[in-house]
Structure formats: C-alpha cells, structure tokens
Design brief:
348 residues; mainly alpha; CBS-domain; Hypothetical protein af1432; 2 domains; 3-stranded mixed sheet; 12 helices; elongated
Length: 348
C-alpha cells in the first residue's frame, strides 16, 4: 500500500501549502480554492499554527443547511476541527483507518511539524482502486502471456493488440451511436482484457497449434474450438465472481471475436449487434495484427494491403461503423506496430 507522500494534495509551487487565516471570509477561501483547482484548504491562526481544514463540501453543506452568507461568514465558523495529522511516511491504510475512527474526510500531512499538504478520503479511495486495477491488469496479462508462450510465432502480439484496442475504442467514443456505451471504463477494460482473447488455445493440441504450415479442414475445425473453450473458461470464473465486469468483457471478446457481422462466423454464428461491441471492436484489431505480422504459413502484409482487406470486409466480416473509425485512426495502428516491432528487434 502506498504512503501519504504518494497522494499529498493542496501543495502549490509558489506558495507552498495552500492555506488561509481563520478570520478570513469563507468567500475568500472559496475563491482561492477555485483559482487553485483544489477541493480543500488548510486553516491557520494569526500565529501560523494549523487549526483546521476547510473543504468545498464543508462550504456547500453549511450554505445549504444553515443558509450562511459566504461573503459575511468567517472561515473559523465553517472549518473542520479538530486538526488530525499524519506524516508523509504514514501508510494510506493507517490514514484511512484514522479517518474512519474519527469520522473525518481530511487529514493534514506534517513534515517536521510543518504542513506539506493534506489527504482526503476520496483520494485514498482513488489510490486503492488504482492499486487494485494495477494488480488485476498484471494478473490478466500474466495469464494471457502464459497461454501465449505455447505459440512462439506471435512476437509482441499481446502488447500490440491491447494498444490497438485502446486506440480504436477511444476513437469510437466520439462517434454517434457509441458515446453512450463507450466511456473511460469501457476503454480501460478493452485494454486490460483483450490479451485474453485466445486463452482457449491452451486446449489446442500442439500438433495443430504449432503446425509449421497451413491447417487442413479437420485441423481448422479443431483450432476453431478455442473461442468457445476460452469463453467457457471465463464464464465459469464469472459465475464465481458475478460482479467482475472485466471477466464479462473478457468472456465476450474470447468467445465472439471470430464472429462476423453477416452471421457466418464462429462459434455461434452471431450477426450484427448480437455480437458484443467489445468483440466487434477486437475483431478488427485482431485481423489487422494478423495481416501485418509474419507467420509460418505467410509473409507479413504491408499496412496498405491490410487496410484494404479490412475495408473489403466492412459490413460482411466487420461492423461498418467500426471500420470507418479504424480508417480514421489507422496511422496510429501503423505507428504502434512499428514501435513494438523495433522494441522486439532490440530485445532479441
């Protein structure tokens, strides 16, 4: 867990800790917070000692409940007391427990007795969520990488596709029909879960998965089972953790990224919007990377050829609106592939 120093807020490069005197007007404090884009401010007395904190929430709460006039009321009448403090090296878990025990939302951070900032309960919650997401994403990618190690012909495929997925999902956010569905959380989940798209390949026999050439019809049918196997595995995990939205998206991508808009894909023959949006996005991503990458059964296509193949697949293999978005951000795909190809060569 991080320590207080990691998320100290309310510091200013010129003025140090943002503070105000207790006998100043509430309106002055509010204007200062607004100008500095901060949510709370340290209150000092005439001797410079810290005597409280004042947050926007305190001001709004008092204005609405007690009908105070911020232009006539002193900060001392509204500020939160008593002052509770910690040091920059105090763990955030200890800070959180202290806030909970004392029913307060802000703690002043003191370094050698001098205030260097403060921490709010909202900041701690944000930090904990960030820590949880980082651990989750690391676990997801490690699991995907483990499955990918059986196929030595893909290079930094996982790194590329998650970047493509983020680029394309982000671009779709601004297009009509997608903005209500795709938000920051959706984009983050696309990035985190897309590496699990081929997790079902762990069930494919080596004689098929590692065949140094094109698959025959029977072998191709075996290879196709990876989509349903991957979705089934993730569905079992989802039953154990039904509130895990990342498992839901991972299942949709793993199970449906080989479906086609015209209904001729696999494993279920879904068509149109019956295919989850995340899978429709990833279908373009996955095919693009396969086209521009060298495989044992083919040479790499140029980005120009890959783009043309995706254009030809619009409204049959791919969602036409997503293809349009892809064309608008395709230069970013090209640059992403270039960057990861160079880094892969450098590491070799």
């Amino acid at each position: 867990m991080a320590v207080a120093q990691d998320i100290i807020q309310s510091a200013d490069k010129q003025d140090g800790v943002i503070s105000i005197l207790s006998n100043a007007l509430v309106l002055t404090a509010a204007e200062k917070m607004r100008k500095k884009h901060i949510g709370c401010i340290i209150v000092r007395n005439d001797d410079g000692q810290v005597v409280g904190v004042l947050s926007e929430r305190d001001i709004v709460g008092r204005v609405t409940s007690a009908m105070i006039d911020p232009s006539k009321t002193l900060v001392s009448d509204v500020m939160t007391t008593p002052v509770v403090s910690c040091t920059p090296t105090t763990s955030l878990e200890n800070v959180r427990e202290l806030m909970h025990e004392l029913h307060i939302r802000h703690i002043v951070v003191l370094d050698d007795g001098e205030p260097v900032g403060m921490i709010s309960s909202r900041e701690i919650l944000s930090q904990r969520l960030a820590d949880d997401r980082e651990v989750r994403n690391l676990a997801i990618f490690s699991l995907a990488r483990l499955a990918e190690t059986r196929d030595t012909d893909t290079g930094p495929h996982l790194e590329r596709v998650r970047e493509y997925a983020r680029i394309l999902a982000n671009h779709l956010r601004s297009r009509d029909g997608f903005g209500d569905i795709i938000d920051e959380s959706f984009v983050e989940l696309m990035y985190a879960t897309s590496p699990l798209h081929d997790i079902g390949k762990v069930s494919i026999p080596d004689v098929v998965l590692l065949k140094p050439g094109r698959l025959n019809d029977a072998e191709y049918e075996i290879m196709k089972t990876h989509a349903q196997t991957g979705a089934g595995t993730l569905e079992l995990a989802l039953k154990e953790f039904p509130d895990a939205d990342f498992l839901c998206m991972a299942r949709d991508i793993a199970g449906c990224h080989h479906e086609r808009i015209d209904g001729t894909g696999y494993p279920c023959g879904l068509a149109g919007e019956d295919i989850p949006l995340s899978a429709r996005i990833f279908a373009v991503v996955d095919v693009y990377d396969a086209l521009v990458s060298k495989r044992v059964y083919k040479e790499a296509f140029s980005s120009v050829v890959a783009k043309q193949i995706i254009i030809e697949g619009a409204c049959t293999q791919f969602d036409g609106d997503i293809v349009e978005a892809f064309l608008e951000c395709e230069p970013e795909f090209v640059e992403t592939y270039r960057q990861y190809t160079l880094s892969d060569i450098a590491a070799a």
